[in-house]
Amino acid sequence: MRFIHIADVHLGMQPDAGFPWSEERGEAIWESFRRIIRLAGREKTDFLLIAGDLFQCQPLLRELKEVNDLFASIPETIVVLIAGNHDYVKRESFYRGFDWADNVVMLLSPEPECVEVPEKKTAVYGCSYDKKEILENRLDGVRPEGKMKYHLLLAHGGDARHMPWNPGRMAQAGFDYIACGHIHKPGILIPDKMAYAGALEPTDETQLGPHGYIRGTVDEHGTRIQFVPFARYEYEDLVLNVTEDLTQYALETKLKQELALREDGKIRKIIRLKLVGHRAAELEFSPKRLLDCGRVISVEDETRPAYDLEQMKKTYGASLISAYIEAFETKTDAQSQKALDYGLEALLAARRNG
Ligand SMILES: [Mn+2]
Question: How far is 107 from 89, CA to CA, in rounded Å?
């Protein structure tokens, strides 16, 4: 039996709000979702498991109809989904009573329930959120039962306010695989047993690295799982080392070259830029201009002005500037270095203007 496990698709979300590419990101979330459905259809995957937060917030009726039509286009794949804390099943939720296609099962109840699929010899367990937070692990006592050969569990949460759980304990319940959602960074909790698929597309800049889905097989030899990168977008840290002779223009050119290197046509990178090294003493880089160089979401400037302290002591002789430099000579911690830089800047400016 083969499955594809996705989670935290967050349909309806537009990540990177306020940035020029944000709308494109919202479209990419829908497109990746459609792509994964086409993939499951092409491969005739037995199960598409959706471990919660398919939607960013309460789904509209037309949105449910849209995803249901997509699911119906892969009739050989059984789709099983639960609601997470974002798309939780409110009293007036359109999830309630929705008429899903024949190959779709939603485990709608807040209490654990089970669907048996005899033609796949498989039972799938799980429960949906009925509110934003669930402080106890509702899946704690769930055990595989019944006549099916294979047993899967869908679980959304794992942090303090969303069904806090102990992966080791969960893994001992006897399921062949536990498909987890909620944490957006993909991660295997117990090898071949329990994993977060992660968000299908990363939803903010803290979710660095590749995103995608988990592909798995369960047979008489046991379970095997593998994370497969699939997302269109990827956040990446880029550290540029600045030297004293680098101008703003040269830095922008360097940054644009680095961004061009990362365009491979398939994955679009969104960059968290960090500047380190020594810049010319009178120079301040413009973060705004760096942000405008491409898909740069943040700029952290850790550069230091390149003061030649020994030379300055000679130049300014017995002055406040020399005394200030000497006061910091034994202090190498980051805070003191910063105080030295800012202080010198102010003293030099005062001298220039006075
Ligand atoms: Mn969640």
Answer: 11
Query: Ligand 1 centre and the CA of 9: distance in Å?
Result: 10
φ, ψ for residue 118 (rounded to 5)? -60, -35
Encode pLDDT of 308-340 as tens digits.
888 888 888 888 899 999 899 888 888 998 899
Q: End-to-end CA distance of the chain, in Å?
A: 80
Taking the CB of residue 201, how many other CB atoms lie within 10 A of it? 27
Contacts of 218 (CB under 8 A, 6+ apart): 1, 3, 122, 150, 152, 176, 177
| 342 phi, psi to nearest 5 deg | -65, -40
Does pTM surpass 0.85? yes
Q: How far is CA 186 from CA 133, 205, 217, 275, in A?
A: 21, 14, 18, 28
Q: What distance in angstroms lies between residue 10's CA and the mean position of ligand 1's atoms?
A: 9
pLDDT tens by residue, 284-317: 899 999 999 999 999 999 998 888 888 888 888 8
Q: Do 144 and 116 contact (CB within 8 A), yes or no? A: no
CATH topology of domain 233-306: Translation Initiation Factor IF3 (3.30.110)
Alpha-carbon separation of residue 85 from 58, 64, 112 (angstroms):
10, 17, 16
Please give the distance, rounded to the nearest whole angstrom, from the Cα atom of residue 8 to the centre of ligand 1. Answer: 7
Q: How far is the CA of 133 from the centre of ligand 1 (A)?
A: 9
For residue 324, with 0-12 CB atoms within 10 Å meaning exposed, 13-18 middle and 19 or more buried, which class applies?
A: middle
CA of 86 to the centre of ligand 1 (A): 6
DSSP string for 105-131: EE---SS-EEEEEGGGTEEEEE---SS
Tell me, yes or no, if the two domains 2-229 and 233-306 fold the same way.
no
Q: Domain ranges for the chain, please list them.
A: 2-229, 233-306, 307-354
**Domain 2-229 part of CATH 3.40.50.2300:** no
A 10 A CB-CB count for 138 gives: 17
User: What is the distance in A from the centroid of ligand 1 to the CA of 40?
Assistant: 23
